[in-house]
Amino acid sequence: MERKRQFLTGEVISAKMDKTVIVKVTRRVKHKVYKKIVDNSSKYMAHVASVEPKEGDIVRITSTKPISKRKRWQVSEIIRESVKIG
């Protein structure tokens, strides 16, 4: 029986490594005490197999079996490419 994979959407903040990118995922949650909307962000190291994302791209990452010490995610698709002005 195949499990449904978890996926997250975030922005590539570093693409300097070989076959690895760092993706920043930002979640908007309501503060428990003050009831104000705050942004919580986490950084994930994701493996790059088929697609080549650049810094600033919005990507979808899916969970996978551990690839290395800190890599448990893989880039599945590029949702939106970054726009460089200038």
Describe the 3D structure.
This protein is an all-beta fold. It has one domain (7-80): OB fold (Dihydrolipoamide Acetyltransferase, E2P), CATH 2.40.50. It contains no helices and five strands. It has strands at residues 7-17, 20-30, 37-47, 58-63, 71-80. Strands 1-2-3-5-4 form a five-stranded mixed β-barrel. Strand 2 (20-30) and strand 3 form a beta hairpin. It is globular and about 45 Å long. The N and C termini lie far apart (50 Å).
Helix/strand layout:
Layout: E1 7-17, E2 20-30, E3 37-47, E4 58-63, E5 71-80
Parallel strand pairs: 3-5
Antiparallel strand pairs: 1-2, 1-4, 2-3, 4-5
Notable characteristics:
mainly beta; OB fold (Dihydrolipoamide Acetyltransferase, E2P); 86 residues
The CATH homologous superfamily is termed: Nucleic acid-binding proteins
Give the mean pLDDT: 94
Query: H/E order of the elements?
Result: EEEEE
CATH class wording: Mainly Beta
Shape: globular
Biggest β-sheet description: 5 strands, mixed, barrel
Domain unit count: 1
